[in-house]
Specification:
With about 130 residues, the protein is mostly helical. Helices cover about 75% and strands about 0% of the residues. The chain contains 7 helices and no strands. The model has no long low-confidence stretch (mean pLDDT about 90).
């Protein structure tokens, strides 16, 4: 396994249909950062990639854990919160999903991220139709 660039290694594994190995590669890289007080700047990217792979594999609870890890970094952005909100919604955690969506909206408003605000409005609309 290439420790130099775990994202590239994981991407190559995922493209080869070896998703479990790709997730393991990212987990290994993340595990090395968890004990550091100042985590490397790529921590959010590693966790986001692992979350995405878990999400695509239908491993929603594991995806949520990785998204939560990514959200807890200084590099958090509204799209990360949207991914976490979506996973929580699909896992039946509506209150938590709505809370994540509200946080994403607040972050998008403060950064004037019109694209994220549009995505949030679309998700709210979809969820309202799912509930109704």
């Amino acid at each position: 396994m290439n420790d130099e660039n775990p994202l590239r290694t994981a991407s190559n594994l995922a493209q080869a249909g070896r998703t479990a190995e790709a997730i393991a590669c990212l987990e290994s890289a993340l595990a090395r950062t968890r004990s550091s007080k100042e985590r490397p700047t790529n921590t959010s990217t590693l966790a986001r990639a692992a979350g995405l792979l878990c999400d695509e594999a239908g491993r929603l609870s594991q995806a949520a854990l990785y998204y939560e890890e990514a959200v807890a970094t200084p590099e958090c952005d509204p799209l990360l919160l949207l991914a976490l909100a979506d996973v929580r919604w699909r896992s039946g955690q509506a209150d938590s999903a709505h809370s994540c969506l509200a946080s994403a909206e607040s972050m998008a408003q403060s950064s004037s991220d019109a694209e994220a605000l549009k995505m949030i409005a679309n998700i709210r609309s979809k969820w309202a139709s799912d509930e109704g």
